[in-house]
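QA checklist item 7 of 12: single-chain prediction sanity check.
[x] sequence parsed
[x] length recorded as 818
[x] structure emitted
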Amino acid sequence: MIDVNDTLAGLSLTEKAALLSGENTWQTRAIPAADVPRIWMADGPHGVRKQVGSADHLGINGSEPATCFPTAATIANSWDESLAEEIGAALGREASGQGVHVLLGPGLNIKRSPLGGRNFEYFSEDPELAGRLAAAYVRGIQSEGVAASPKHFAVNSQELRRMVSDSIIDERTLRELYLTAFEIVVRESAPWTVMSSYNLVNGAYAHENAHLLQRVLRDEWGFGGAVVSDWGGSNDAVAAVRAGGTIEMPSPGFDSAREIEAAVRSGDLDEADLDARVREVLTLVERVTARTVPAAVDVTAHRALARRAAAESAVLLRNENRVLPLAAGTRVALMGDFATTPRYQGAGSSLVNARDVSTLAQALGASTLDLVGTARGFRRDGVADAALVSEARRLAASADVVILAFGLPEIAESEGSDRGTLALPADQIALLNSVVAVHDRVVVVLSAGGVVEVPPLDGAAALVHGYLGGEAGAEGMVDVLTGVVEPGGRLAESMPLRLADTPTAGRFPSTARTAEYREALSVGYRWYDASGTPVAFPFGFGLGYTTFAYSDLRVQDGVVTVTVTNTGERAGSDVVQVYVGRSAPSRMPRPTRELKGFSKVRLEPGASTTVRVPLGDRAFRYFDADLDSWQVEGGEYEVSVGRHPGDPTLSATVHVEETTSGGAAADGSRETPTKATRALTDSEFATLLGHDVPASAWGNGSLGYNDPIDRISTSKSALVRLVFRILDRRRRKAEASGHPDLNILFMFNAPFRVLSKMSGGLATRRLTEAVLTVVNGQVVRGVGAVVSAYFRGRRLEKTSRERFRAASERPRTTRRSR
């Protein structure tokens, strides 16, 4: 075991500076003579992705086999904290079994828009639901001695130019929506690490944002762990140390260590700040190496858990004439390309090398149903094929029920790019229309990491959204279709009728330098509720095969109690959802109602139970920007219990005491002067921010260190513009094939600084600046500078490695050394 204090006291300045960046893509640096081992980090929000060969951070190269569980967006629909914790523990065991010390997940960013390309990795549009489920994952992972790393902190909402985009957001919206989920995780599960996001937040990069990392995360919430940068997300190593960023990943070589050491020697960086960060590293190493025997992994049990989780998270959206569940012996025709080539996870860094992936065709064939045939029905690339439709139509005539396996192709949802539409491919809709013309018992099963526009699917008698169900998702779906498992899923995000109805329509993703959060608090159901915009299916919605009744609602001493009765003929589950909203007019704009508690209940037919849902400190608070603190507006509040925000089955009024003394709530000086039913104007947004709206346009001059690489399309050099066209041609070719080129997407979205920050020491900042000389039109001078910077950098790296090796091999003392 490491004695953190003694070890820290015995480290040299060189050693301390070096510990704050990685040794390679996935490991931290070791100091053997001080008994500080290297530790291994790996992606793993829904399955461990440990690479032992050629390493990358984008899920391109292979990794060790692991159980692929349903993605976070899927599990969120379960609303089941115990299930989330069980999955977390399984992830922790598999990580431990593979020698992984830090599992990079779960992801819990708020789904600002359904177009977010990485929404499949995130839980919800609501911070209460996202935070509590993520906290359960963290508790499970860390119960196995492995550090969880909830991510991405914070306000990481879009993939486009994610490494350079500046999220401009007012403090109240930041606190109430985008930080609350992280606050819940930190306070309720004490993660050992947190991963900072790529983007800037109000002008400062997240990994060097003192307001986020020191003021909020550490001082207010009491976080005592290490902050790990997203891979390539560190900008200024010295600023990060000063602000609370602990470990820079992956390895930038010793470039950052040299900067940190020089800053301490010059007095630009207080060594106390450096020591604080090193203490966090050593504490992390101490925690994750405490377990000396790797966990035993029961692969069979983990796959069974993955199957159960997929079934319990599937959302039954429509079930006309009770076509579901399907009785044993039902003659079923299965159609759709997803039936034999499943989509069970998203693309990017979370990509798991799954052990045993099942298909819907295999799962149906092994069930009690009579599978009369399978037809492809449509092409994955969206190209219309009349022959495939005709084949499917003929097959439909031979079946009692037709199951259509629909979904979004891989290219639609990927790390590195955002979606452009909520529509399903037209050829899938054409197949549905053709089949419903000859058959009235059609079941559509959706595979997608988020919401889609469903009005075109109105012809289907039943609609089940399985999201991305993991390696056993097909079997879990068949369990639901046949009634072996009651569909227990409830939507963790709203399903709009059309993209134009969403709160960020026309503004997401931002192509500008800034992403302006002008919808403020009106995200997801808060927007639809306040604006009166109808949705296809509301947040919290989901059907089952049985029915439930609520009665005897009481709110007393901060606890909501309600009696739930299974009034149907089958055992089943329901989610009791508690919403809170003002009864009397408020002094400030606020959502009509907000989720403040929930509980999942399972009951046999005719059984009743009393459900208790505590209303904690978060139930009535708001953040006062003028007082810079949480406050409570006194008065009457409506506490409602229902199945979604627009279904207050039962409600009660409670009186809450005031805590406010002056500030925004008293005079409205920083509050939005309009109802939150549209994007704010420039003046309204400036009022909310408390300052002028920052300029959003990209500059027209020379490109710089933190400009996105895709802006080489505007380079003064014809040669550089040619390079852009070649790369862009590769990107478009990959998109046409249906499989995104993650390398190109990452490169285009990334700033020039990644050339040195992610080189492992092959490049330095000086070399990056030389490349920019070429990009900005001074080709001859720039090429010479590149060559010079490269060889100078190699010499510096060699010297730094030798200094670090010499320092780390010297005899240990307990003296504090400069």
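[x] summary fact logged: Confidence is low (pLDDT under 50) at residues 664-669.
[ ] second reviewer sign-off
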